[in-house]
User: Fold this.
Amino acid sequence: MADTCVRDDLGFALLLHRRGDGRMAEELYFSTRRDDGSWTPADHLSGGVLGIDPTSESEVAAVLRGRLLLPFGESETELFTGRPEAPEGYETLCFQELLVSPEVDRIDVESTATTGVTLPGRIRGPLASPVTLFVLFPGERLIVRPTAREGHRPIPQGEGEAVHELTCWQRTI
Assistant:
């Protein structure tokens, strides 16, 4: 399990695995929370072969080239969210992944949405793997800042390469 993300009554899991041919792949699953608090069996959303092995520190370091975070993958799909702002309950959700340096202990996340979508500021961590998953509703904008592990180089708190913006644009049909 590389990472999980729970948004309202939707849960998402990003799995990394080695295929029979030795290459690494990822699979994205989702589940919905029932009224009694239990979760439905997971449904597969997407998957694919990766260009690197994200469990290999040397391969991650070669891709990051000294950076702390780097966009690693993105996709979108329409799902039933049941939210009142969703036409007929369906919305296009955006899935964004970041490749994270081993120097990073946690990720600070700040919502900067201007469309009325609110996401409380939060700190994610500790990280489960070098690949972290973000699920955004339409109109959401997040600013992502890494926090260094003790003993590693300091991470700048202002703007710069250590700060990334993730966006899911509002789509109309």
Observations:
- The chain has a mean pLDDT of 83.
- The two ends are 35 Å apart (CA to CA).
